[in-house]
Design a protein that fits this description.
single chain, about 475 residues, alpha/beta, Aldehyde Dehydrogenase, Chain A, domain 1, seven-stranded mixed beta sheet, six-stranded mixed beta sheet, 14 helices, about 20% strand, globular, Aldehyde_DH_Superfamily
């Protein structure tokens, strides 16, 4: 074990020792690259979740009573600590989640960018003064923190997804209870430890680790003291969370599944489109909610695109994320591998052509799936209707612009879409016609802290990041002042 990983684990263990000195039960966090145990963490239950909510409720008056500038300074110190520990946090992330170390470094920086952004936005939760319709009243609107927030995060970006939710909530004065994904809680624990070092009160962030998420989730979504639930994950679970939260009319933010199309028109820059496709499809081994799920290539350039794309895909190296030249790491667990394999075999049975399939490391015990490229795919195949969440490209052709827009929109999901074209009229028509919350135009990577991240239809509710990112954590209060 490297010294950097030891430092990261020591940070987590010290935090756990203070919070849970004698946990009654624990469970193991395993490295998906070799299935070895990294660390054991408390296996909490519904009672622990209620205790965490009580801690957040108790800390809320203290935290929200600080000035916006004071909270901003605390978040800025947190941001600086995260970047100071970027290498340790990245190695911890790779060890528990599997992504290549270069991607993990990028995720730590990406997560820190949200902390920095909302440290700056903390002082901009502006209200309004509205002209009165009488001479003896003044009409004002103020913004106040919504209260205790439940946060439920996924395993594919265990640092950045949490930072993206915690930062705006804390910036406006909310306190939080966090349930990280059961497979990847270590990054969340490390973030919380650094937040306390930065001066954020101990009860402002409360981490609940568990191998049994359902009972915890029910408490976090129904408890009377919780005023908002923020969830990133699958659409079926998001619907269930919305149903639970509706029982007490809690505000809900949902960032759910996607089925992103990647469209390449015949006037596109093909080399640029290939590079954009590689970035969008194979980042994190295809385990991202905004990654390309369906490729649509216009007939006139199909052969040229496939030839170059297949050549580039064949160069991708699969291996443990800690190896310097790895580009494709393991999937999160064996169930994920089995799901991807079932989708690929189903497509091949229905006529898809296996144009390329790579190799996985010899004698590995890890959860690896080979890089795969399928052509002659149709919309009748399951992998075009649900998220693949693996390193598999599914390519189809199209003839006309109107046709591909209709096919791209023929899904209940609407998170992200991508297309490559150079005709300015086509760019505007297609961008406005695609029914998605985020569109990458001649770009395969679209996320940053300054943009409103989120989808439409069954891909979610609300937006994270940007100046809009504070809104879901604030209540609007109207003051009518007579004199």
């Amino acid at each position: 074990m490297s010294d950097l990983l030891k430092d990261a684990l020591n940070l987590v263990q010290a935090y756990l020792h203070i919070k849970h000195p004698r946990p009654s039960t624990q469970y193991s966090i395993d490295n998906p690259a070799n299935v070895s145990t990294i660390l054991q963490v408390p296996d909490m239950d519904a009672h622990d979740a209620e205790h965490a909510i009580a801690q957040a409720t108790q800390t809320l008056p203290q935290w929200r009573s600080l000035t916006a500038r004071e909270r901003s300074k605390a978040l800025r110190r947190w941001h600086d600590l995260v970047l100071a520990h970027q290498e340790e946090l990245a190695l911890l992330l790779t060890t528990e989640q599997g992504k290549p170390l270069a991607e993990a470094r990028g995720e730590i920086a990406y997560g820190a960018s949200y902390i920095e952004w909302f440290a700056e936005e903390a002082v901009r939760a502006y209200g309004d003064v509205t002209p009165s319709n009488t001479g003896h009243t003044r009409l004002l609107t103020i913004k106040q923190p919504i209260g205790v927030v439940s946060i439920i995060t996924p395993w594919n970006f265990p640092n950045a997804m949490l930072a993206r939710k915690l930062a705006p909530a804390l910036a406006v004065g909310c306190t939080c209870v966090v349930k990280p994904a059961e497979d990847t809680p270590l990054s969340a624990l490390a973030l919380a430890a650094l937040a306390e070092q930065a001066g954020i009160p101990a009860g402002a962030i409360n981490i609940v680790t568990t191998s049994r998420p359902a009972p915890i989730g029910e408490v976090l979504c129904t408890h009377a003291q919780v005023r908002k639930v923020s969830f990133t994950g699958s659409t079926p679970i998001g619907k269930h969370i919305a149903h639970l939260a509706a029982s007490s009319v809690k505000r809900v933010s949902l960032e759910l599944g996607g089925n992103a199309p990647f469209i390449v028109f015949d006037d596109a820059d093909i080399p640029a489109a290939v590079q954009g496709a590689l970035a969008s499809k194979y980042r994190n081994a295809g385990q991202t909610c905004v990654c390309t799920n369906r490729f649509y290539i216009q007939e006139g350039i199909y052969d040229a695109f496939v030839a170059e794309y297949a050549r580039q895909v064949a160069l991708l190296k699969t291996g443990a994320g800690t190896e310097a030249d790895t580009q494709i790491g393991p999937l999160i667990n064996q169930a994920a591998c089995a799901k991807v394999d079932a989708l690929v075999k189903d497509a091949i049975r229905q006529g898809a052509k296996l144009t390329y399939q790579g190799a996985i490391p010899d004698d590995t015990q890890g959860h690896f799936y080979p890089v795969t490229l399928l052509t002659q795919v149709t919309e009748a195949m399951a992998l075009t209707q649900e998220e693949i969440f693996g390193p598999v490209s599914a390519l189809m052709t199209f003839k006309e612009e109107a046709e591909v827009i209709q096919r791209a929109n023929a899904t209940p999901y609407g998170l992200a879409a991508y297309f490559y074209a150079r005709d300015i009229g086509r760019i505007w028509r297609v961008a406005e016609a695609l029914d998605y919350g985020m569109i990458g135009i001649n770009e395969g990577i679209i996320s940053n802290a300054a943009i409103p991240f989120g989808g439409v239809k069954e891909s979610g509710l609300g937006r994270e990041g940007s100046r809009h990112g504070l809104d879901d954590y604030l209540e609007t209060k109207f003051l009518c002042m007579g004199f």
